[in-house]
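Predict structure. Chain length: 240.
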Amino acid sequence: MLMETQHFIGIDISKATLDWAVYSIQKGIIYQTQSANSEAAIKATLKIIESLPDFKRSTSVCCMEHTGIYNTHLLACLYHLHYPIWLENSLQIKRAGGLQRGKTDAIDAVRIAEYAFRFKDKTRLWQPPRQVIQRLAALSAVRHRLLTARQQLQQPLQEQQGFVTPALQKQLTKTCQASLKAINLDIDKIEKQIKDLIDKDSHLKELFELITSVPGVGPSTASEVIIASNEFTAITDPKN
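Prediction complete.
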């Protein structure tokens, strides 16, 4: 909890751009801008923010939603410059805002900044995941894409059965066999890489074994829980 925080920086993130809003505990919103989602643009924007009256890095916090890979440049810059970082669940921010009219990236940046101010007592500072967790997340993302590709091929074949002639169904199924076989092989490779990664890290392996000891929780779910919670370090409230 950052009791001394004086400025709350809300950042709405998209692939190409970042929208910024700075909330002062004394004056409310004091600055808004948009920048490119690049390291150079982020550093330039931070220089402007740091020139604001009474602004200090040590008494500020940057709040943003989880946006996956689009966070990469921003998190790297902020962490390198020792900014306190609050990475919040997007649903949590939306729920806290209640019924709202109007939605633009600029408005969302203001809402994020105001959310950080209103719930400053619930601030949870982000720390970068270990390298092994970053690798696990990358492998898990590839696995998810492969599973989606397999489903996109299999589901239409299953759904059309009974609505086309047996000969046509056989032809269509045969056409997709090579692709499905290749996807299944790739899924097997990814799952082996994930298992090897976990087995080589004692802490990760221990967490994995604890999670999968719960009835009904398999390896895939265990991996996602570990990634999402950053090895449970992101969980500070048992109710979450």
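Summary: The longest strand covers residues 28-36.
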